[in-house]
Each structure stands twice: as C-alpha cells, then as structure tokens.
C-alpha cells in the first residue's frame, strides 16, 4: 500500500511544496490583511467588510439551499449589512466584548449572520450542532457561562426545561418571524434586526482575543471549550490558499456543520478571507441530493469527510454516473482516516483526486495535508503545511526517525493554535506535557519522504462518522437511566462510519436484559445527549473490568470486543 502513488496533476496556488517549505514565512500570510500586521485584528472585517468595500461588493458570498430546495443568496455587501445589524442587535441587548453568544441553529443563513455579527462586536461565537440534546446543550452553556442564545422556537423547546440552571444567560434570540408575545427572556430576531442600523464600527481585537469557542470531547470529563483567537485567520487564509487551493471564480462547498471546527474554520472563515463564494446546504446527507448540488452549483472545490465519501461509494457507480462534475478540481477530506479505496473510487468514477487533511479542533486549522502540486500516497495524511514542524515523538519528546511509531506532535506556536481551554488551564497545559511539543493524542509514523501515516488514537476518544465523542459523556448519560448500574463505552470499528459507539452495561437488580431494554436505553441517550452519540450497540454484562480504584478499563472491553490479547491486567480488580 505504501508504494502506491497518485502523481500531481498540476501546480496550484502552491507551485512547489518543497520550495514553499524553504521560503514561506507566516509574515507573508499577514500581508493579505487590511488591518493586522501587528495591529488590530478582526476576522469579520477581513472576511466580509474588506470585500464589501471592494469590487466584490456584489459578488455572491453565500449560496444557500434549504432542505426543501428553497434557494437564497447573499452578496458580500448584503452580508456586511446583515452582520452589522446583528452586531447592533447584540450591543442593544447589552452584550459586551468577550460575551459568549451561543448559536444553536440548523445550517441556515442566520447561522452565518450571527457568527460574524458576534465577531464584529468582539463577542465569542459559540456554535452548537443542532443534533445535540438538552443535556449536551446545558453542559456547554453552563460551562461557558453563556450570555446569549440564538435559536429557533423548535430547538428552544429542548432548552426550555434547562433554562433555570442557566443563571448567566441574559437573552434568548428566537430566529423566526414571530410577533406574538415571546416566552420569558426571549426576543424575536427579525423584529430586532429590522430595528437595528446596518452600520457598525467593528471592534479592533488583539491577536489572541477569542472569536470562537468549540466544545470538544476527550477521554475524561465533560466536553471542554477550546478557544481560538482572531489571529487564527492567518493560517486559515494560508491553508485555504495552499490546500483548498481556492481561486477567484470558485464556488466552494464545505459539508461540515458550523457546530464543528471544520464548519467554522473552512465552512465560514478561510474561504471568505479569500473572497470565495460559499455553498451551504441545510439538509441532511443524501447521495442523489449531494451529487445534484455539486453539479447544479458547479462546485469547484469540495471539502467533506471519509464517512460521506464511503456512503457515496456504497450508493453505487450508476448513481454517480448520472451526474457530471466538469467544474470540480479536487475533493478534500478530514476528520478520520481516508481509505485508499475511497481515493481510487473517486479517481475512477469522478476523475478527481481526494486530498486528505489532518488537524483537530485544538489546532484551529489544517496542519498535515496533501496539495494539488504534490504526489498523493493513498493511506497517508500527507505532509506538514509550510511553516509547521510536526514530529513523531516518544514520551520524552525524542523526535523519532522515519518508520518508528509514536505520538504525533507539533512544535507549538502556529498562528491558529488554540489560545486556551475555557476556565480549565490544567487541561490546556496537559497538551504540552512533553516539553517543546503540542501532543495531539494521535499515534502515527512518518516515512522517508516525510509523509505522515495515521495509526489510531492514543486515548479512548471515539470517532464516529467524523464526530468526536467522549466515552465519559456517553457513560454519564447511560448511568442516568434507571436500569443502568454501570457502563463502559468504546468505539467499535465500522466499515462505513469508521467507528460506532458500543456500550457495555450492567443492570441494576430487578432489571432483566432484553432487546426492548437495549432500544429503550439507546433512545434515552439519544434524546439526552445527541443524535450522533448514542450507542448503536449495547451488550448487557454481569460486571465490567475495573482497576482496583474502580476505573472502568475501556481498553480491556475493546480488546475483548476485537478478540485481541487483553494485555497487562495486573491492575484489574480481583
Ligand atoms: O484522531 C484524529 C482524527 O480526528 C481527530 C480530531 O478530531 P476533531 O477535533 O473533531 O477535528 C476534526 C476536524 C478537524 C484527530 O485527533 N482525524 C482528523 N483528521 C484526520 C484524522 N484521522 C485520520 N486522518 C485524518 N486526516
């Protein structure tokens, strides 16, 4: 597999990877901005207002299609007005710089307007994926001390039961055309927007002042709030240029939801910094609809995830054969390992290369990638972007030679590196516990030519359909079910989804295992936590393997599930 290669087809914005690695400096990235260069920063200024006061004023910034096929579009000029109105709306409601503005919406234009409106007034945009249930929303809003929430009346129904616990919350802004009496603490978005001025003086931010907080899962505890500063835009712009390879006439589609980092860094910020037209589709995954969107909007660059590509592959060659994509230059992929088979399929059926990219919520932007000007080695994640030093290290921080497996680590200080974890400095410091390195939590190796190959996670974090799921969060939700005494959760390999969430559950006295109970427990977690995080498989067991101190040994559960050696059990409870 390691010997298979796909030669480069053409030079992109990046003409030579090797040359750029020698010559590139981050300072050259800064030159693209109107403000910055050591001065004030604001992503919203560079992504919207700069274009709105140039010839791009009437260029389409956003093409949007609803789940039912309704279309809307916004020019950069219109986006400036709408985001200014929202910034004024927030200020009118008493919002201050640094306030956390939660946005719990489907992929609708208001998600973009409220994101950049928040950034303009110096607030921290806190997106949450609309598939998240009441407990997930409450945990995140409580942790971040949410000041504002933007949502729809339908999604608000999920939040209403937990409203009392959200003591720092000032106002809920409901996105709908309602004029009737709004519920307690709630106001109507449209009404306020109509009354707000379309002019706004964008706040001048320091490079490290946060513009976004993304909640993401680890092995232990509840999800943590990863903060990114306005300076992240330097790397978001450079990678949108070098990796996405965006050019002036492009229509670019990122399928990730703004609730995830890919949906903000590359579904909003990066491409708009370059003045590209974005496509946003509200609906869910459906092979025919997705192909049709690529064709109808003449998408030129498409950023998606391996699970989606695997599902398209499964939908068959006949279906893809009904469409043609003459405008599409290449596909980019992120979030989980990209199978060589998928790369071969895309070449065979669409005639397009798939460029794998590796990064994380914490890294804010792409770090290890493939480029139009470079050879692809299917199965490898590619090579570090110019300006980034990545390594494979051991526990002491020794940079290991090619071929040796170890921790995938990066020299800290890249422009989009997280600026903190909200109210959790110890967790932030843990990422840097190996001196001189940021430790990613992934295991990998590097080959002689500097390509990185992913091996797996070093921890228990689960990746299902590209979503990052913390086992602890699922176990906690399971334990709230009256029938559950103990629960251990693992990622079980799955051909399409990468992994699925599998739970091992022991029952309280008086409960009897049954298929009905499995379905009921599964549904319980789905409703509380998230539609993507519930256990698709549950095994009832008499007891769970634990350490003497009572910690559930997930690695033992996993090894047993996979029929592997269980390894050292000396700490196991006897
Ligand atoms: O395990 C790696 C996997 O996804 C993790 C980061 O997840 P998240 O913070 O949700 O960010 C996803 C999108 C930026 C990584 O630690 N991962 C990400 N990209 C790849 C990958 N695994 C293999 N190949 C990739 N290209």
Tell me what the structure shows.
The protein is built from 18 helices and 26 strands. It has 574 residues and is of the alpha/beta class. The protein has a nine-stranded mixed beta sheet with strand order 2-1-11-10-12-13-14-15-16, sandwiched between helices. Helix 9 packs across helix 10 (261-273). It is globular. The structure holds adenosine-5'-monophosphate-propyl ester. Adenosine-5'-monophosphate-propyl ester is lined by residues 216, 261-262, 334-338, 356-361, 381, 440-442, 454, 457, 463, 468.
Q: Which helices and strands appear, and what pairs or packs with what?
A:
Elements: H1 17-23, H2 26-30, H3 43-52, E1 60-65, E2 71-75, H4 76-92, E3 100-104, H5 109-120, E4 124-127, H6 134-144, E5 148-151, H7 153-159, E6 171-174, E7 186-188, H8 189-195, E8 210-216, E9 224-229, H9 232-242, E10 251-254, H10 261-273, E11 277-281, H11 287-296, E12 301-304, H12 306-314, H13 317-321, E13 330-333, H14 340-349, E14 353-358, E15 368-369, E16 383-384, E17 390-393, E18 406-410, E19 420-421, H15 425-430, E20 438-446, E21 452-457, E22 462-464, E23 467-469, H16 471-479, E24 484-494, E25 498-507, H17 515-528, E26 537-540, H18 554-562
Parallel strand pairs: 1-11, 3-4, 3-5, 5-6, 6-7, 10-11, 10-12, 12-13, 13-14, 25-26
Antiparallel strand pairs: 1-2, 8-9, 9-19, 14-15, 15-16, 17-18, 18-20, 20-21, 22-23, 24-25
The structure holds adenosine-5'-monophosphate-propyl ester.
Adenosine-5'-monophosphate-propyl ester binds next to helix 10, strand 14, strand 20 and strand 21.
């Amino acid at each position: 597999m390691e010997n298979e290669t796909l030669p480069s087809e053409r030079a992109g914005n990046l003409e030579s990877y090797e040359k750029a690695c020698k010559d590139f400096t981050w300072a050259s990235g800064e030159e693209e901005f109107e403000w910055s260069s050591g001065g004030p920063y604001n992503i919203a200024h560079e992504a919207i207002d700069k274009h709105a006061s140039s010839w791009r004023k009437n260029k389409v910034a956003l093409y949007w299609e609803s789940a039912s096929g309704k279309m809307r579009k916004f020019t950069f000029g219109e986006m400036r007005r709408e985001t200014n109105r929202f910034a004024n709306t927030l200020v009118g409601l008493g919002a201050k710089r640094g306030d956390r503005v939660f946005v719990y919406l489907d992929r609708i234009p208001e998600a973009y307007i409220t994101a950049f409106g928040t950034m303009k007034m110096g607030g921290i945009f806190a997106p949450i994926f609309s598939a998240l249930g009441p407990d997930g929303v409450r945990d995140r809003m409580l942790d971040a001390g949410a000041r504002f929430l933007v949502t729809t009346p339908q999604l608000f129904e999920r939040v209403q039961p937990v409203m009392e616990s959200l003591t720092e919350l000032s106002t809920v802004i409901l996105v709908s055309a309602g004029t009737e009496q709004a519920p307690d603490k709630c106001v109507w978005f449209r009404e306020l927007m109509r009354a707000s001025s379309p002019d706004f003086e964008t706040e001048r931010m320091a490079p490290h002042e946060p513009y976004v907080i993304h909640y993401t899962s680890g092995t232990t505890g509840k999800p943590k709030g990863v903060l990114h500063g306005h300076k992240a835009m330097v790397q978001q712009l450079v990678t949108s240029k070098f990796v996405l390879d965006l050019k002036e006439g492009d229509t670019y589609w990122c399928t990730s939801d703004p609730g995830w980092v890919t949906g903000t860094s590359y579904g909003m910020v990066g491409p708009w910094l370059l003045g590209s037209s974005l496509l946003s589709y509200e609906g869910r995954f459906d092979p025919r609809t997705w192909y049709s969107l690529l064709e109808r909007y003449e998408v030129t660059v498409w950023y998606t995830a391996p699970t989606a590509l695997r599902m398209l592959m499964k939908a068959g060659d006949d279906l893809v054969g009904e469409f043609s994509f003459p405008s599409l230059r290449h596909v980019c992929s992120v979030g989980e390992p990209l199978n060589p088979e998928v790369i071969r399929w895309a070449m065979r059926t669409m005639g397009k290369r798939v460029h794998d990219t590796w990064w994380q919520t914490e890294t804010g932007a792409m770090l290890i990638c493939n480029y139009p000007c470079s050879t692809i080695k299917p199965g490898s994640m590619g090579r570090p972007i110019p300006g980034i030093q990545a390594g494979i290290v051991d526990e002491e921080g020794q940079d290991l030679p090619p071929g040796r497996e170890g921790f995938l680590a990066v020299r800290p200080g890249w422009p989009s590196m997280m600026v903190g974890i909200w109210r959790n400095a110890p967790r932030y410091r843990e990422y840097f516990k190996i001196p001189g390195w940021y430790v990613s939590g992934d295991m990998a190796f590097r080959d002689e030519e500097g390509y990185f190959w992913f091996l797996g996670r070093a921890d228990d974090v689960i990746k299902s359909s590209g979503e990052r799921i913390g086992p602890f969060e699922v176990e906690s939700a399971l334990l709230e079910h009256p029938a559950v005494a103990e629960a251990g959760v693992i990622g079980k390999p799955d051909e399409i989804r990468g992994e699925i969430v599998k739970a091992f559950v022991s029952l309280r006295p008086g409960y009897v295992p049954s298929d009905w109970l499995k379905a009921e427990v599964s549904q319980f977690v789905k409703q509380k936590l998230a539609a993507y995080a519930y256990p698709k498989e549950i095994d009832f067991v008499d007891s769970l393997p634990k350490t003497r101190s009572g910690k559930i040994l997930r690695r033992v559960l996993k090894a047993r599930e996979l029929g592997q050696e269980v390894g050292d059990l000396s700490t196991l409870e006897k």
